[in-house]
Amino acid sequence: MAVRKKKLINQRQTILRDMLAGFASAYPDVVRLTDDGLIVRARPKSAGKVGLVIGNGSGHEPAMIGLVGEGLFDVNVPGEIFTAPGPERIVAGIKAADYGAGVLLCVSHHAGDLMNAEIALELCQAEGIEPVEMVVLYDDISSAPKGNEPERRGTAGLFFVWKMLGAYAETGASLADCKRMAEAIRDNTRTLALALTSCASPITGETMFEMPDDEMEIGMGVHGEVGIGRHKVVSADETIDLMLPRLLEDLPFNTGDEVLVLLNNSGSMTLMELYILHRRVAERLAQAGIRHYKSWIGPYATTQEMAGFALSLCRVNARMKYLWDAPANGAFLKGV
Amino acid sequence: MAVRKKKLINQRQTILRDMLAGFASAYPDVVRLTDDGLIVRARPKSAGKVGLVIGNGSGHEPAMIGLVGEGLFDVNVPGEIFTAPGPERIVAGIKAADYGAGVLLCVSHHAGDLMNAEIALELCQAEGIEPVEMVVLYDDISSAPKGNEPERRGTAGLFFVWKMLGAYAETGASLADCKRMAEAIRDNTRTLALALTSCASPITGETMFEMPDDEMEIGMGVHGEVGIGRHKVVSADETIDLMLPRLLEDLPFNTGDEVLVLLNNSGSMTLMELYILHRRVAERLAQAGIRHYKSWIGPYATTQEMAGFALSLCRVNARMKYLWDAPANGAFLKGV
Predict the structure, then answer these.
(1) Domains and CATH numbers, chain B
(2) How far is the C-alpha of B173 from the C-alpha of B48, rounded, in Å?
């Protein structure tokens, strides 16, 4: 088993505080840590543009603190490890992202995050903070069947939304248009994940789930939520052959489509393995007549030291490609 | 133990070939894989500029294939896993990087790499390929005492050289000046690493070294070479307090100096931990009156899924800061 219980922290109680202080100390030209624990852009957007906010449980770094910056999010509201931030903190985040053209609150679909976001929106209404809109995002095809897409979980593929929506808001697009763009990217995105090992919670020190040495799980969520099922470990090519057809069928992605590819490292996969996996993805896409625009391979949304990856595809048009290629300057995402 | 013996590959014999094909398939706008297994820039430098080449054993991804691109290396000669490429392949790399102003062959100091580089230079002389210069680079203070710097190993801190030398060669600097710049950056760089766990070799499937559950090793090399010694696992702050003073004394870094900081992820450290570690680094530098310019935190030179990190400092002047901030476009290093 590849679970690592020894971690270099100070105290369990101070993980979030220490991490945010350390993160902000590393990137003073990109982000600032506020007194109330928000990560905000070091250089605010110009007035009259839509502000973008997201809240999330921590423990998935670089998500989402590493995605705050020019051409990306304006404010991240980081919760405790694997815990959605409370509604009051989300309201504080919305206020910090208000440049006079409204604020779009992005929610990666998980029960706690959605509930707290809905309460935050009610608080904003009561306080007269407006306009504020919410967009709920999901991509994991293993968490609910086709036809029930809004019940699916938000996972690594949402990075397609973060990057392109961030670029879109910089163009001065309206709040309604930003929300529509986020939905359009979401509706063209599909993800399926795989885990080889579990990981240890930094809070409890305990293994998050059990995984036999010769098995892998297809479809696991970012907190170890159950997926499609266990499978004996097979080769890299066979793994992609198990996963990719499910993704292609789901949207479906068709001959002539053009796609972005994300191979997200859940924690301790080697890039060596991810590159080997990408070889088969590229080969299979070419065979299906699907054009490959660009790829991202690396740790964008992690679950501690879990060994695994998520394969995400996003069907893009000319406008999305423009947004994909637009400048960005976050701590973990620069000059795409 | 956090060693992971199950890895998603196809066959052990085809790891390098599959990995290079997959890497090139992901980044066609950045790199190209040649028929003889070199990774070269997709868009060559303009004629009359110095070409930069490096060879290295694979298994340390993104090093060095991810560092080929504009403002970085022109050619990487990737060897088999943990195995230096042979002299003939290095010569092929030198030929591929020749834009008419000479080629600088960079060598990260390890016995096999140095020997093969020296033979490659002799082959170039015999073939009349010139001018070609070699620069040997090292940074790991645990591998030889102060005063014997040229005996030290090359480790993660050499990324300071790669980034700034790459930018310098783009300015049209001469071969002699490029070599001097590489040496100057090297001579201002110091690294000390730490390992919490071992890893499994992707070739043999076996654990590379043994590490008790409650210990860590300070000063380990990128292939598990022995360091300063074992230590009981302590807190993040105490870990930095064990490591940073040794680095500061070695150069030495003094009050008023300005530094770049690298916290390189050896494989499966979480960014959560690395950010917590950085908090203490920033605090201690401030206390010592050393100015912090910018930081890099992430997986730049890995040893498979080993849990550990390297802390590197580089003292910079105005010219180096300019080179640090210059554009770059590699698969794993963009728009710094």
Answers:
(1) 12-187 (3.40.50.10440), 189-324 (3.30.1180.20)
(2) 10
